[in-house]
Specification:
heterodimer; A: alpha/beta; fumarase; 6 helices; 7 strands; about 25% strand; B: alpha/beta; four-stranded mixed beta sheet; 8 helices
């Protein structure tokens, strides 16, 4: 399924765990230090550096771009480290996250409450993913280097719905199908 | 005494930093290809295919396989008959890391303090383990380690009565807990015996042994095979999205230990598991 940002409600309503998607449009990057900064800004009553409503945040810290390149390698980082910060961002209108790995129950509950989706990109397929990034610019926290906030324009960015707005979880559903292990 | 100049060490380390990060190790590539044939999950097959494509693109474009180009872990085996000239060995290694990460457009991922997290901007310092050996050889092994998987590693101080079954249990539990967070298919390094820190270093060292090379000790080699088979029954699969390919290999190193102890360290690594050695 091809989807575009901003991530509107009618798109989210169609997305089910396990759906493969190609994302086109503007997405934002933030990881550990970027999230910490955003939450600190919010605590001080300030606005965060981009319009979070109906947005997607991609958890990534890219490798440096070579001269003439848009970005370096840019695969997803593990998402649970952002879990402490995520519910507050979801309450502000964040609708999609791209990362890898499990999420805390409080994040899933907040996704259900706010109608948001968690997408997975293939961890370690960083050179392949970089080819779907058409534009990249740092929009805030430049001093954080790889952890700076970036605005990306992506075309056909490959992802899969890991957890949908009903809390259905692809990891859980698929793992049991292939689990034959029995402890001695 | 044989003399080795620090410049040669710096060059060799810089070269390995770039090479390990852009070109997938042959044993890992073989492992991915093999598992693609055995995988039955459609999502799993597709992911393995993307990983192979990714490795091809990275090598062709000379860019990192994964954006997490890791913390540089270095094992040095230095002969007693070797004399280092031109400076300090540790400085030479760190200079090699600095040079390799800059020239190779690799990500700088090191912060100077665990709490006050300011990036050192050159990916130093490296974590260096020295081993003094006989002769006049100098062998340097480099393993840039990503932290998605490093964070999923565990150490257990088991009781002697827990025995081999206890060790198997905690190893499989650790792999099961790591799940999708560690970028499976994983490579698992296990260190058993020694002390608290010895077990952890052995686990890391196990990760620089190619996965197609089993332990020289018969029972350990059998244990590696048995655990690999069982780990692949956990259902985690490529990227944790289900399947039979959960681990590409499990390498185990052992060491004598205390009458009261059975330390087991499990160092989880991802499907990129980088390792390379050079003798100077």
């Amino acid at each position: 399924m091809v989807i575009t940002t901003p991530l509107k409600k009618h798109i989210i309503n169609q997305l089910k765990a396990g759906d493969k998607v190609l994302i086109t449009g503007i997405i934002y990057t933030a990881r550990d230090a970027g999230h910490k900064r955003m939450i600190e800004q919010l605590a001080k009553g300030e606005r965060i550096p981009f319009n979070i409503e109906e947005s997607i945040i991609y958890y990534v810290g890219p490798s440096p771009a070579k001269p003439g390149e848009i970005i370096g390698s840019a695969g997803p980082t593990t998402s649970y480290r952002m879990d402490d910060y995520t519910p507050e961002l979801l309450d502000l209108g964040l609708k999609g996250m791209i990362g890898k790995g499990n999420r805390h129950e409080k994040v899933i509950e907040s996704m259900k409450k706010n109608g948001a989706v968690y997408f997975g990109a293939v961890g370690g397929a960083a050179a392949l993913i970089a080819s779907s990034i058409i534009k990249a610019k740092v929009i805030a926290y430049e001093e954080l280097g790889t952890e700076a906030l970036r605005e990306l324009y992506v075309e056909n960015f490959p992802a899969i719905v890991l957890i949908d707005q009903d809390g259905k979880n692809l990891y859980e559903e698929e793992k049991v199908k292939y689990r034959t292990y029995q402890a001695d | 005494m044989r003399e080795v100049h620090v410049n040669d060490i710096t060059q060799a380390v810089a070269k390995m930093c770039i090479a390990t990060n852009v070109k997938i190790s042959p044993d890992i590539l073989e492992g991915l290809k093999k598992s693609q044939k055995l995988e039955s999950s459609p999502i799993g097959i597709d992911i393995l295919d993307q990983l192979l494509q990714n490795a091809e693109i990275a090598e062709r474009k000379n860019m990192p396989i994964c954006q997490d180009t890791g913390m540089a872990v270095v094992f040095v085996e230095i002969g007693q008959e070797v004399s280092i000239s031109g400076g300090l060995l540790t400085d030479a290694i760190n200079e090699g890391v600095r040079k390799g990460y800059e020239e190779g457009y690799l990500r700088k991922s090191i912060v100077e303090d665990p709490f006050f997290r300011v990036n050192t901007n050159d990916n130093t310092p490296a974590v260096i383990h020295y081993d003094i050996v006989g002769g006049d050889s100098l062998k340097i092994s480099l393993s840039p380690k990503g932290f998605g998987s490093e964070n999923m590693s565990r150490i257990y101080m088991l009781k002697p009565s827990d025995g081999i079954e206890g060790a198997k249990r905690v190893i499989l539990e650790t792999i099961d807990m790591a799940g999708p967070n560690a970028c499976p298919p994983m490579v698992v390094g296990v260190g058993i015996g020694g002390t608290f820190e010895k077990a952890a270093i052995l686990a890391k060292k196990a990760l620089i042994r190619p996965i197609d090379q089993s332990s020289d000790i018969t029972y350990v080699s059998n244990l590696e095979k048995e655990l690999t088979k069982k780990a692949n029954q956990l259902g985690i699969g490529p990227q944790g999205m289900g399947g039979r390919t959960t681990v590409l290999g499990i390498n185990i190193e052992t060491f004598p230990t205390h009458i009261a102890g059975l330390p087991v360290a499990i160092n989880i690594s991802c499907h990129v598991t980088r390792h390379m050695s050079v003798s100077l």
